[in-house]
Amino acid sequence: MTRFSGLDRETLAALIRSYIVPVDTAVEISALPQPQPYFRASHHVFCQVGRHHNPDPQQQHSQHQSPYQLVEEDGLEYLRMLSSDSVDSIFLMNVLRGLDSDEGKALLDESLRVARSQIVVFSLLPPATDISENDLNAVAASAFDQNWHVFQSAEPVPDASGDGSFVHCWAVCNCGMPDVFRLGVLSGFSGLPPAPSGQANMLDRLFRHWLPDRYRLFYILLFTPLVFPLGEEGRLPAKYIELNDNRVFNVPRLYRLFAKHKLDRLTRLLVIIANIYYVSRELGKHLIQEDCDWVVACTYSLIEMPVGFIASRIAKRPFCAYYFDWYAYQSVDPMEKRIAWLAEHLILRLADLVIVPNETLQEILRQRYGVVSTVIHNPNAPEFLEFEPSSDWPTKKSEIRIVYTGSVYHANADSLRNLAKAIGKIGRPELKLHIYTSQAPSSLALEPADENHVIFHEYLDRAEVAQVQRKADILYLPLGFNSGIDEIIQTSAPGKMGEYLASGRPILVHAPPSSFLADYMQRHCCAVVVDEDNVAVLAEAIMKIMNSADLRETISEQARRRAILDFNPDIEGQKFVQLFLQS
């Protein structure tokens, strides 16, 4: 069972809306006087417990857009009349507390038998009732197993009937899952767990949450067109398959042949085409042998997208393009960029499913190609949401730590250098930038005058990174202004974004105004954003955070809320699962 407690009313409502899947048919069994608007069903059946029906629900509930049908039978009796797996979703609205344990258990058992998509339970609990001791578990402890997600409000909410205040509790169960769903995922080796890359971390968080050891749902096959050099530690409990065809990678004779005629560009083009052709054939054979239900290609390098698409057609399997970055622009090589541009125009129009990490890229692909894509935000690891943020600021009286965790490269280097200059401009010796990265300090190319303001640390594992982020006084999230990859900057959703939001610490963003990052942070008021390439303005923003406790508290609370709503591994994981099961 996954639990979320201490949620404010608005956050709780938003979470429930995101969890509930739109369906065709829903049965609502309720102790409440009217149907609820949460349940986006085309056909909504409404019945109450104890046969106490509203005398004229048609008139009172005409404001609800979903058509519904009132039935006269008691809720349990009505479910017993239905055949197994005959209804998409069942909603039990504040009925379990009014039933004895045998009746409550029977109601849940019948719901599990009849529902093929979801069961949603709502209950009003007395204040200070612990979720582990509430009526839901008392009624059906065995039913609320690991497939349930339970949510509880932080404060009691006054009841509309005037009977007092109650804590709102919801439980959602996804049912009717297949015994096994075989998903083939293609990426380069450093884009797969346990590699220390952002894409590898996102795949680890997304897949580990839904693998067979928890839900017996996905059997993941991870394909890579290169030899996988990393050890067993940290790997997903999945099958790793190396697509290493000697005909593809042993091409010195081809190089020598064309080099004589100074046809290096033609040689590179032929090698790329040969790579795509042979790896596609090999992947297609594996998809058939492993009986994969879907193939997912990630935007790791040039060849994964066309290889995954061609292999899906060879194996006659549906194809999903998973965009971690904008594929057509992720390479800086002119030839590779032209090939990617042509491949994107063809593949996106023919793909069965397209996943993107943010709304900015979603809108761009819609405008360019008419593609309807689905946003799955890069999720946090569960442990990033399972702690109470600290209110201490600064963490240590003797220093103020601005922290950046992640790679240092051309996509953010100029913004990191701006921060070093801004710290120098402020002139406070206790203020330092701490960078935790696997890159060498030379990769930042600091000017000698700025080196004293920056302290480099070695790369840390996920648990250690989380601790560092929670102890930061300011978390710094930069994107470059002069990177030469404007399209990637505009649509980038850094993997650490959700981590920073969950940390409970104030965030400083330095990114171009057209970027998703700057837009999101400003729109939700969860960071101080500097969207111009100006060291003086950046220094002012740092001082603004340092001098205002109210500002720090406001942006930290808003950030934590957005982490729960938009970067929640349970929510994003469920969206991912439902995409494939319903497509």
Descriptive overview:
Helix content is 38%, strand content 21%. It has 583 residues and is an alpha/beta fold. The chain has three domains: 2-174, Rossmann fold (3-Layer(aba) Sandwich); 181-379 and 569-582, 3-Layer(aba) Sandwich (Rossmann fold); 387-566, Rossmann fold (3-Layer(aba) Sandwich), CATH 3.40.50. The strands form three sheets. Strands 1, 2, 3, 4, 5, 6, 7, 8 and 9 form a nine-stranded mixed sheet that branches. The chain has a seven-stranded parallel sheet with strand order 12-11-10-13-14-15-16. Strands 19-18-17-20-21-22 form a six-stranded parallel sheet, sandwiched between helices. Helix 3 runs parallel beside helix 4 and helix 10 packs across helix 11 (304-315). The two termini are 27 Å apart.
Summary tags:
22 strands; Rossmann fold; 3 domains; seven-stranded parallel sheet; 583 residues; 21 helices; alpha/beta
List the helices and strands and how they pair.
Layout: E1 2-7, H1 9-19, E2 23-30, E3 41-48, H2 57-60, E4 68-70, H3 75-81, E5 87-93, H4 101-114, E6 115-125, H5 135-140, E7 148-153, E8 157-158, E9 165-174, E10 181-186, H6 198-208, H7 212-215, E11 218-224, E12 239-242, H8 246-249, H9 252-259, H10 264-289, E13 294-298, H11 304-315, E14 319-322, H12 334-350, E15 353-356, H13 359-369, E16 374-375, E17 400-405, H14 413-426, E18 431-436, E19 454-457, H15 462-470, E20 474-478, H16 486-491, H17 496-502, E21 507-510, H18 516-523, E22 528-530, H19 535-547, H20 549-566, H21 569-582
Parallel strand pairs: 1-7, 2-3, 2-5, 3-4, 5-6, 10-11, 10-13, 11-12, 13-14, 14-15, 15-16, 17-18, 17-20, 18-19, 20-21, 21-22
Antiparallel strand pairs: 6-9, 7-9, 8-9
Helix pairs in contact: 3-4, 9-10, 10-11, 14-19, 17-20
